[in-house]
Design a protein that fits this description.
two-stranded parallel sheet; mainly alpha; 155 residues; 6 helices; 10% strand; 4 strands; single chain
Length: 155
């Protein structure tokens, strides 16, 4: 978690729960292999009619609530300990930011608008590259793109 104002980081906190929590909980609950659970998590393992089993959706919602709770505790701590604290929106990054149940849980708890970070927003992309692919993987690419854009002397 990183709370930023005018480009400067005001608060950071590592959260111990991440995307693996979804995979592990699906694997445990459905008693399936890790790769199959991962496929369910990313939406690539649906039944023949394109439906994800209800139990998978319940697991996803449950893990999203736990993650949103961790986020909310950090936000509450920041707001309670920082003078002139004003958080106006939430930007999610990383592969787990694609999980819509996480969006809903965080928005419901925080009562703040949420958006998924766009790694390519300030990047000129050559027309020969597959824009759809880049957009689909933008949340995971954010750290790599950010590091690639750094210049000597950056903090």
């Amino acid at each position: 978690i990183n709370i930023v104002r005018s480009g400067a980081s005001l608060f950071t906190r590592d959260v111990t729960i991440g995307g693996n929590a979804y995979t592990e909980e699906i694997q445990k609950r459905l008693q399936i292999a890790s790769d199959e659970a991962e496929a369910y998590k990313v939406g690539g393992n649906q039944s023949e009619n394109g439906v994800v089993p209800q139990e998978v959706l319940q697991v996803m919602d449950g893990v999203a609530e736990v993650m949103a709770g961790e986020f909310q505790r950090s936000l509450d701590f920041f707001l309670a300990t920082t003078a002139d604290a004003n958080v106006t929106r939430i930007v999610l990054a990383g592969g787990t930011s694609k999980v819509t149940s996480l969006h809903k849980a965080i928005e419901r708890r925080s009562r703040l608008p949420l958006e998924v970070a766009d790694a390519w927003r300030k990047v000129e992309v050559d027309s020969s590259l597959d824009r759809g692919y880049l957009n689909a993987h933008s949340p995971e690419a954010l750290i790599g793109v950010g590091l690639a854009m750094r210049v000597p002397g950056d903090k």
